[in-house]
């Protein structure tokens, strides 16, 4: 199976232990072993911040064992401190550990490091506005917008725009809307433009994703 870009960051726990799936710029092959159960926590676009102790750009297109990240061994000890003999128990342990770290300012991972402008950046770009227009509307220079976009999402604005627009088009297409109307509603120049972006980001045509 292929995982397509969505600007999210995932903390996943599988048979080989917990790992971080960083923000993707293209389709990533993923395999699940027979009988393997994956559980995880998804950080919505712009919501991971410095949670993993490294810039998100360092996790781009990567699958990194949690143990290889700053504080990862301590995090794993926290996860395995209680019962984890079932998938439900592992999920509860993972959610509780993430929540504790998000709320504890002493951990250095609390929500105060999140950029309050991140949702507006993503929404402006999703609407198809030019990078310069989004920057102006938020009171930033284009250089400031780029820096904040890379920090919050791991992507420069142009890449983020392609990804959030693609995800918006995918949601519209899954409602049954004709693809020509999907392209117009999602802010593409035309259907051919959408088809090119979809293939670039997913590895195939839109119909294969529906």
Please tally the β strands and state the result.
Answer: 6
How far apart are the termini? 14 Å
Described by strand count, sense and barrel closure, the largest sheet is:
4 strands, antiparallel
Which runs of at least 5 residues are low in confidence (pLDDT < 50)? none
Helix content: 40-55%
Radius of gyration from CA coordinates: 18 Å
Strand percent estimate: 5-15%
H/E topology pattern = EEEEEEHHHHHHHH
Q: What is the secondary structure topology, with strand pairs?
A:
Blueprint: E1 2-3, E2 9-14, E3 17-21, E4 28-29, E5 39-43, E6 63-65, H1 72-79, H2 87-103, H3 118-126, H4 131-138, H5 142-153, H6 157-173, H7 179-186, H8 191-202
Antiparallel strand pairs: 1-4, 2-3, 2-5, 3-6
Detailed description of the structure:
The protein is α+β, with helices and mostly antiparallel strands and 210 residues long. The chain is built from eight helices and six strands. The strands form two sheets. A four-stranded antiparallel beta sheet has the order 5-2-3-6, covered by helices on one side. The chain has a two-stranded antiparallel sheet with strand order 1-4. Strand 2 and strand 3 form a beta hairpin. Helix 3 packs antiparallel against helix 4, helix 6 runs antiparallel to helix 7 and helix 6 packs across helix 8. 29% of the residues are buried. The mean pLDDT is 91.
